[in-house]
Amino acid sequence: MSEFQRFLAKRFAIAAVLTLVAVSVIFVVLRLLPGSPFEALITAGNLTEQQVNEIMAMYGLNQPLWQQYLTYLKNILTFQFGYSILQSEPVWQVIRPKLFNTLILLVPALVTTAVLSTLLGMFVGWNRGSTLEKFSIITTTYLRSTPVFITAIIFVIVFSYTLNVVPAFGMRDITAAPSGFTETYLSMDFLHHYILPFSVAVLYYSGDFLLLARNGVIEKKGSEFLKLHKAKGLTELEQLARAGRNSMLPVLTYFALRLGMIFQGLILLEVVFAWPGIGRALVMAIQQQDYPVVQAAVFIMALAVIIANLVADVLYAYFDPTVSTSGGGTA
To answer: Among candidates 311, 282, 277, which has minimal Cα distance to 297?
Structure first.
């Protein structure tokens, strides 16, 4: 087995352990929450104690904790998420459209900001000390450090309530009843509701990519290979392109990490804009203590982050010869 294969095996083993820890934490935390999913229904008189006991037996919630854990572990690791307690539907049918709504919002936002912010970061890094560099760093750092719900609320106040140019909440008009992918996601009504949360997400992610690209170009600017290119008569733009290309690895690995984290959604962004995504659905499921929905949603989020970290590690080890795959730092 080669050194790189041993590195892969080690990283896959770590990912498997992290997955087991994540699903175990999900199980324990949910069981530590006060109350149960049925308290509100009992208080409202919708269910009797006997009916609750029957439902708990159906979901296995009356079994000993260790038995619940083993059943839960077997089901969650085989992607058998069961049925929502409160919606009486398969969990995957409940969270699938929510997950897609999150991806349709955040993946284009992440790709857009990764491309634009990286190009801007390369340019300001090459022109270090310029007014544009100072302005872009201050602006993007402020947007990244400000909680996303604050930026979202400011945008709602300015563009929805003051200027009245875009709707404040939702994914479509309240009276709309679209059918099919085209009417749902490619209509003018959807685009009208999409602009505001999309813009906030783009601005929120921009600072990280800009600083990574800027710092990478600054590191490469005085390198020997660029001096050689300059001696060959390459223009400033051609030198910048080569410096940018050679500093892309941190940007690519960060993009992989962020892509995994997208499955969490920007929970507060979705709550502010009432966007029907996975983050908002998770908040509501936690409030209602809908165990199967919470377990499935958090498991998908955790698994996506673990896989993204694994991909980032492998990308770095494969493309960067200075990174040691033996775990001993740089080669």
So the answer is: 282
